[in-house]
Amino acid sequence: MRKLMLTGGLLMLAGCAGFGLPHHDPTQAWIDLESHQQDTALLAVEVDNKAATDKRYFEVQPGSHELTVRYQFPVEPTNIGPDAEPLWRDCQMNVKFKDFNAGERYQLQAGNIGFRPWAKLYDQQRKVIGQGTPAGCQRT
């Protein structure tokens, strides 16, 4: 029984590993998500107040959009107190940009300084074209 469960689990992991990102639609703008630090998670939540179809990236029509992301990160003990354990934060941020172009790839990066999260939107030339605004945080 144990062997069957282990085999099933490994097959499941192998199957998940085969599912990469879909092909980029050239009629849309693609926004990659990247967290700036280790042990963090950056997830797509909403586009224009509608649930994102995939948590790993955004794909939007050309034009103006508001992206909402969820950023989870640990606040290190050096920012809390000498005997503290890391404190996990779960934050949402909004990023507005008025000029997404079809066929272009953008990158949304997130990080934190102490308790404060940040997000920046970059174009293909690595120029900052948008910044995140906090939309609420909670401890996890």
Summarize the structure.
The protein is mainly beta. Helices cover 11% and strands 54% of the residues.
SSE topology sketch:
Layout: H1 2-17, E1 29-35, E2 41-47, E3 50-51, E4 57-60, E5 63-75, E6 87-100, E7 105-113, E8 116-122, E9 128-139
Parallel strand pairs: 1-7
Antiparallel strand pairs: 1-4, 2-3, 2-5, 5-6, 6-9, 7-8, 8-9
Properties at a glance:
54% strand; nine-stranded mixed sheet; 140 residues; 9 strands; 1 helix; disordered N terminus; mainly beta
Description:
With 140 residues, this protein is mostly beta strands. The protein has one domain (26-139). 11% of the residues lie in helices and 54% in strands. The protein contains 1 helix and 9 strands, in the order H-E-E-E-E-E-E-E-E-E. It has one helix spanning 2-17, and strands spanning 29-35, 41-47, 50-51, 57-60, 63-75, 87-100, 105-113, 116-122, 128-139. A 9-stranded mixed β-sheet has the order 3-2-5-6-9-8-7-1-4, with no helix packed on it. The longest helix has 16 residues, at 2-17. Residues 1-18 have low confidence and may be disordered. Keywords: Signal. It comes from Pseudomonas reinekei. Residues 1-19 form the signal peptide. This is Lipoprotein.
User: What is the global morphology?
Assistant: elongated
Largest sheet: 9 strands, mixed
Q: Portion of residues in helices?
A: 10-25%
Beta strands, count: 9
In order across it, which strands form the biggest sheet?
A: 3-2-5-6-9-8-7-1-4
Give the integer mean of the pLDDT values: 84
Strand percentage: over 45%
Reading the helices and strands in chain order gives: HEEEEEEEEE
Low-confidence stretches: 1-18
What's the N-to-C terminus distance? 35 Å
Q: What's the Cα radius of gyration? A: 18 Å
Q: Which class best fits the helix and strand makeup?
A: mainly beta
The total of helices stands at 1
Number of domains: 1
Keywords: Signal
Protein name: Lipoprotein
Organism: Pseudomonas reinekei
